[in-house]
Design goal:
heterodimer; A: alpha+beta; Ubiquitin-like (UB roll); Fumarate Reductase Iron-sulfur Protein, Chain B, domain 2; two-stranded antiparallel ribbon; 8 helices; B: 667 residues; alpha+beta; FAD/NAD(P)-binding domain; Flavocytochrome C3, Chain A, domain 1; Methane Monooxygenase Hydroxylase, Chain G, domain 1; five-stranded parallel sheet; five-stranded antiparallel sheet; 19 strands; globular; binds flavin-adenine dinucleotide; binds iron/sulfur cluster; binds FE2/S2 (inorganic) cluster
């Protein structure tokens, strides 16, 4: 296949960026989207041009590094799939594909398609944990947890921290990401003691980072590669209001 | 025996060594801990666990990773599970049995003392993770669920669907971020360590490059912990993350740390076969699938041929025309033989002409039997259906399979375009894990005082072959439960050492060396990309130092690698500048180190005139094609010292006082 690309190029955080045109020939339908970029970069390097910077590591849809906005959609056209798991068989010969970085004030561009998502780490540092030092734990089976609660917590814990939810939201809200962590920990008995403090701290940090507010459009969940459900946001809102009420 | 290789295994009975050690090791009092600084390179299971635990104890910690967040370390990708000798299933497991299985699985090439300690602390790891909120799989009664993995006959593997590594790492990451929030850890993401700084023979810090600005930075530490993962990417194609590399360990090696058993590589039997030249990495299909999948190839060559050119589908091959070669060769363990054995058996069948995909390099992993007969029937019974139809059996069974392995099945379909609920998976062995690594003593200290190695970066516990679900266990054991004790042994003598200014000449000199090397790479301005050399290196390593090795091949590999090294340093093209975000420059530095490592791996493989675990020398095999160990001459750890004019081999003798060393049989 032959593919036409329009790719966002931006030298660094301060520079102005623009879309540039590229052509990639000899694209195999079995290639992943990132392998197509490998081929393009190899070509650019041999020609003496600057290759395109993009984040990636596991290429298995689990590390959350890859982050391309493809034809207006975070991670491209398929539901439940990260950019690295998208294959060229999802496109047609001759297609023109526009590739941009995540767009959000809280995610400044480092270079080209790579953005700075450290705001997510700071939100976790504010409260996304259970305070238990190494060596303080009791025997794991002393605390039975119903399979349903465990499974539900697991579903929320499946978030890979990619930031597609923020990129998909017109307000660049981080509610889905934050609520997934809040939910995981509040669904488990171990997470109860700090539940109120946690939700307050995480929401405050989220606001401080400059993420927008949630207007319930659901775009985040629709584009989330791990199917994190909107019910997480509802749960977090309940927890937040109840924490606020009790003034903790 | 050179005494620098003192493994420092405590005296006494095997099952008392660690307890006694813990109660007699030097301690550092809380006030002193606050003035001791520790550098942790890496934020995978080993690094995050160590950084968090040491910070909780009061040390001042700096932690580094090259990804944009510590949560993205390669550990995140581990799928299948983590072992622990909890004996929750009441199937006869014990600390001793986990210890025994690990030594045997490692083909008697690991230290008894270290492995026993690992088995002892395994249980606390699960407790710690559950307390952090790690959502392990559970039974309806609310208790933890287990499954079995290769090389064992008990169920001791804890898991979280096919995302165990992710959940464990997110647990360790949350503990780490908690300490970051409290100011006890300073986190440096998107930073790559490019050298170790030594002063008076001790590790005193690192030089790191800020990968966004390209600036070099100097960081002091009273001790430096390398938790930088494995080097499987020396093969170019592997199941490791794209960024996994040997640079941190290799720089340490250049500064005096010995590399141990570099040739012990684990080739994992169940990975998705490659599809073409564009392939950038290989994807693992978790070993846990072997619990429910049967491995086979056609028994007739003409069927194999027809499958290869697509005129026959695997579902059309009759039961009697299938060769379940693992069940045939190893009736006691069947599809659950250890990885090295399963990989070689697959290669043997494919080399003999029975491989199935277009490349002839694939075998089937088939779920149909368990899906219908095991799970389908049980579910039908639960539903009170006495004579279920074939479609019913399949439907019910598929539900159970989905619950257990859903994400793996989806991933397989996404990558290959084939639905594994309908057709068996095609799999082939791929490079997965490196048992070799920096030599460390019982304290996890390398041969450079104050420089430690944890997790996959060290060589310590898996001998010549690692059992499934034991890397996660080892990484977390090292980080949560071993280093917090053993580091005290060294730091107790350091409490009078004031933080050394990074203006010290040693920092300046090391930084200069790093800078010069970067400039050298940028100035070559040749014609070939970094990947070009990496691919060539990978092919040589896979062909000559992969699943089967021989003298001639290894010798020619060494010559070819030296040639690649010369070409790389005269003709590589690294675009861009030093002081900017430059991913090609990052790759170039890593590949330069891989090339040197590749040569040492071949040298190590050549030196070891026996077959053991993942190291299979064709000259040393039984009539039945099984690995032939030589315990009289090779029961030692090879530890390589880097010298001006090449490498010098040191041997650490392995003593087996508690296990009778025997031929490893899974028949
Ligand atoms: C696909 C796959 C599945 C697996 N499944 C299992 C399983 O089910 N069970 C099991 O037990 N094991 C499994 N393993 C093995 C296991 O995941 C790894 O051995 C283990 O996670 C390694 O952990 P680690 O902490 O040692 O290193 P890693 O997780 O690799 O972390 C390395 C860290 O070091 C950092 N780093 C490296 N170099 C530098 C540098 N120069 N400067 C700064 N930072 C640096 C990286 O940024 C990263 O943070 C699997 C492996 C793979 C590839
Ligand atoms: S909620 Fe979904 S989209 Fe958002 S960070 Fe997590 S995985 Fe990515
Ligand atoms: S590269 Fe890891 S999720 Fe895409």
């Amino acid at each position: 296949m032959k593919i036409n690309l329009k790719v966002w190029r931006q030298k660094n955080n301060k520079a102005k960026g623009e879309l540039k045109d590229y052509k990639v020939d000899h694209v195999s339908p079995d290639m992943s989207f990132l392998e197509m970029f490998d081929v393009l970069n190899e070509d650019l390097i041999t020609k003496g041009d600057d290759p395109i910077a993009f984040d990636h590591d596991c290429r298995e849809g689990i590390c959350g590094s890859c982050s391309m906005h493809i034809n207006g959609r975070p991670h491209g056209p398929l539901a439940g799939v990260t950019t690295c798991q998208l294959h060229m068989r999802s496109f047609k010969d001759g297609d023109t594909i526009v590739v941009e970085p995540w767009r959000a004030g809280a995610f400044p561009v480092n270079k080209d398609l790579s953005v700075d998502r450290s705001a997510f780490d700071r939100i976790i540092a504010a409260g996304g944990f259970i305070s238990v030092n190494t060596g303080n734990a009791q025997d794991a089976n002393n605390l039975p947890i119903g399979k349903e609660a465990a499974d539900e917590a697991f579903m929320s814990a499946a978030c890979i921290g990619c930031g597609a939810c923020v990129a998909a939201c017109k307000n660049a809200s981080a509610m889905l990401f934050v609520s997934a962590k809040v939910s995981q920990l509040s669904l488990l008995p171990q997470g109860q003691p700090e539940a109120k403090m946690r939700v307050m701290a995480m929401v405050n940090q989220m606001d401080a980072e400059g993420f927008g507010s949630c207007t319930n459009t659901g775009a985040c969940s629709a584009e989330c590669p791990k199917g994190i459900d909107l019910s997480n946001i509802a749960r977090m809102n309940r927890e937040f209001f109840s924490a606020n009420l009790t003034g903790k | 025996m050179s005494n620098i290789l003192d493994s420092k295994i405590p005296e006494g009975n095997l099952n008392e060594k660690w307890t006694k050690y813990k109660s007699s090791v030097h301690l550092v009092n809380p006030a002193n801990k606050r003035s001791l600084e520790i550098i942790v390179v890496g934020s995978g299971l080993a690094g995050s666990a160590a950084a968090a635990s040491l910070a909780e104890m009061g040390y001042k910690v700096k932690c580094f990773c090259f990804q944009d967040s510590p949560r993205r370390a390669h550990s995140i990708a581990a799928q299948g599970g983590i072992n622990a000798a909890k004996n929750y299933q009441n199937d006869g497991d014990s600390t001793y049995r986990l210890f025994y299985d690990t030594i045997k699985g490692g083909d008697y090439r690991a230290r008894e003392g270290n492995v026993h300690r690992l088995a002892e602390v395994s249980s606390s790891i699960i407790d710690q993770c559950v307390a952090q909120g790690v959502p392990f799989a559970r039974e309806y009664g609310g208790l933890l669920s287990n499954r079995s993995f290769g090389g064992t006959q008990v169920q001791r593997t804890f898991y979280a669907a096919g995302q165990t590594g992710q959940q464990l790492l997110l647990g360790a990451y949350s503990a780490l971020e908690r300490q970051v929030g409290m100011g006890q850890v300073k986190m440096y993401s998107r930073h790559e360590m490019l050298d170790v700084v030594t002063i008076d023979g001790k590790a005193r810090g690192i030089i790191a490059r800020d990968l966004v600005t390209g600036q070099l930075e100097r960081h002091f530490g009273h001790a430096v912990l390398l938790c930088s993962g494995g080097y499987g990417n020396v093969f170019y194609l592997s199941t490791n993350a794209m960024g996994s590399n040997v640079t941190a360990a290799w720089k340490a090696h250049k500064r005096g740390a010995y590399m141990a058993n570099p040739c012990y590589t684990q080739i994992h039997p169940t990975c998705i076969p490659r599809s073409g030249d564009h392939q950038s990495k290989l994807t693992l299909m978790s070993e846990s699938l072997r619990n429910d999948g049967r491995i086979w190839v056609p028994a007739k060559k003409e069927d194999a041929e027809a499958l290869r050119n697509g005129t026959l589908r695997p579902t059309q091959i009759k039961e009697e025309d299938r060769d379940y070669y693992l069940e045939r060769r190893y009736p006691a363990f069947g599809n659950l033989v250890p990885r090295d054995v399963a990989s070689r058996a697959a290669k043997e069948r494919c080399d003999a002409g029975f491989g199935v995909n277009s490349t002839g390099e694939a075998v089937y992993l088939d779920f149909f039997y368990n899906m219908t007969e095991k799970y389908g029937r049980t579910e039908a019974t639960k539903k009170g259906i006495e004579n279920p139809t074939a479609p019913q059996l399949k439907e019910f069974g598929a539900g159970v399979i989905k619950e257990k392995y859903g994400n793996l099945f989806d991933m397989y379909k996404q990558i290959t375009g084939v639905d594994p609920y309908e057709e068996p998976m095609q799999i082939y062995p791929a490079v997965h894990y490196t048992m070799g690594g920096l030599w460390v003593d019982y304290n996890l200290m390398t041969t450079v005082p104050g420089l430690y190695a944890l997790g996959e970066a060290n060589f310590s516990d898996h001998g010549a072959n690692r059992l499934g679900a034991s890397a996660l266990m080892q990484g977390l054991a090292d980080g949560y439960f071993v280093i917090p004790y053993t580091i005290g042994d060294y730091l107790a003598d350091e409490i009078r050492t004031k933080a050394i200014s990074t203006d010290h000449p040693a920092f300046a000199a090391t930084e200069k060396e790093v800078e010069d090397k970067i400039q050298k790479l940028l100035n070559i301005k040749g014609t070939k990309s970094v990947d070009h050399y990496h691919k060539r290196l990978g092919k040589i390593m896979w062909d000559e130092c992969g699943m089967a090795r021989n003298t001639e091949g290894l010798k020619s590999a060494i010559a070819s690698i030296q040639q690649i090294k010369t070409e790389f340093w005269s003709n590589v093209r690294v675009p861009g500048e030093a002081n900017e975000f430059n991913q090609e420059l990052e790759k170039a530095g890593r590949v330069a180190d891989f090339i040197e490592l590749g040569e040492l791996m071949c040298k190590d493989a050549l030196e070891r005139n026996e077959s053991c675990g993942g190291h299979f020398r064709e000259e040393y095999q039984t009539d039945e094609g099984e690995a032939l160990r030589d315990d009289v001459n090779f029961a030692f750890v090879s530890a390589w010292e880097n010298q001006e004019d090449g490498w010098k081999l040191h041997k650490e003798e392995l003593k087996f006082e508690n296990i009778k060393i025997a031929a490893r049989s899974y028949k």
